[in-house]
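Contributing new complexes? Match this layout with magnesium ion.
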Amino acid sequence: MTGLADCNNFFVSCERTLDPSLEGKAVVVLSNNDGCVVARSNEEKRLGIKMGQPAFEIRELVKNREVIALSGNHSLYRDISVRVHDIFRRYAPATIDYSVDEAFLDMDGIPASALPEIGAAIWDSCWRELHIPVTLGFAKTKTLAKIVTEVCKKRAVHAGVLTDENLKWKLLDMTEIRDLWGIGRRLAKKMYQGGVYSIGDFARLDRGHVRKWLGVNGERSWLELHDVNCITLAHIDRRLQDSISETRTFPHDVEDYDYIRARIAIYASYCSQRLRQMGGVCSRATVFLRSNRFHTENGYHAPEMTFRLDAPTDDAVVLVKTCVGLLDRIFSRGIGYKRAGVILSEISDARAVQPSLFNPCPTMREVPEKLMRVIDSLNSGSRSHGTPAMRLASQLTVHHKGYDDGFCISFGSVQP
Ligand SMILES: [Mg+2]
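Output block (do not edit by hand):
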């Protein structure tokens, strides 16, 4: 059996761990620059607010206090994400982290009769230890587990186990084809036109017909509905994030250029590492600084600059250089900065990169790719324990007492 563990309204649930008064209220989390809605609570969903809806459209609701809108706190979400996945790992022999808030659980060798209890235990741990609600679905394949999880969520059930064949067909018949995992809007339209409306309709088609009509991906989904496990992680089209950001509020106002430069280098390098982990490359890099809103002798400063890269990249060296270059253009001496950050955006799949006209030699990517792989493998695992094993020289900074936000190191601690 395979399980899917999926956190409910993840970003909103994370915010509620910090501020319990948000419980039961309609809450949305906004994207990086507060532009649009990226997460909603159930209460919001009932109000009809959509994912990706521009923030100005809900301004009235926010003003009337019907809705609470929060800026995303992505370092909090990442931190909780790591801990949620740690809990999942405790209960399953093997897990695949699918996204920030979802993991597949390989329950091979565990009898189906034990699964309701295991599901309840996972729910209980996540709620008791982290105050994050999850939903769990168990079935013979990943695709079916996904369907079970969705049904459980709609019915506000913590966990469901699907083994019964009759029940399976009932669920498939009542679920719309566009909700089938891996079916995009385009393919759903094609299916509607072919008279396929529910997942049950699809599963009743002839296998050979499905392969001819929808290709191997369609056939894989069809097989999964017939209890044949055939989607491995390599087949999963992981949804790439739209952007990756790393920002920090400094404990003090900082005027020191060298210190901020090292921070920007660290943030850019860390973003690039996450970019490589998800198999993406980015085309835009943004650096921003914020002065302290409450120390206004010099006025409030919020300079920001974006650079469009010649060719999409995930190379830490290129991204750090680009971001430090941007910092040089926006940094002003004599201003105390309270916050700094890096945003990488326009992210696309690393396997589908269009080489630049001005840098057309594909082998020029090979050396940095190998280098990044080595650095990542040296650093893998060390990140959670604090400082990475290997970093770029531009990330080094003289230790400033009181500025330590977990990244700071002193030259004395650098090993030859
Ligand atoms: Mg979720």
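Reviewers usually confirm one structural detail per submission. For this one: The CA atoms of residues 246 and 270 lie 8 Å apart.
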